[in-house]
Fold this protein.
Amino acid sequence: MMEGKVWQNLIDAGCSAAFIEQYEALPEEEELSCLQRHRRYLLDAIHDKQLQLDRLDYFLYVLRKRGDEGK
């Protein structure tokens, strides 16, 4: 069984209970690569959200510009 501090760190890092259980079952030599894959997953999610935010900002810019042209 994993010690409580490790479990809490994984929860704080956004890992689900299912992920943590899978992580806990891994041999020690596979733990690092598992965490690196999860880090890439989180970073990809950040990039996806950034792209959505950029697109929304552009849409807002277009709407504001169109509104300013009508004045």
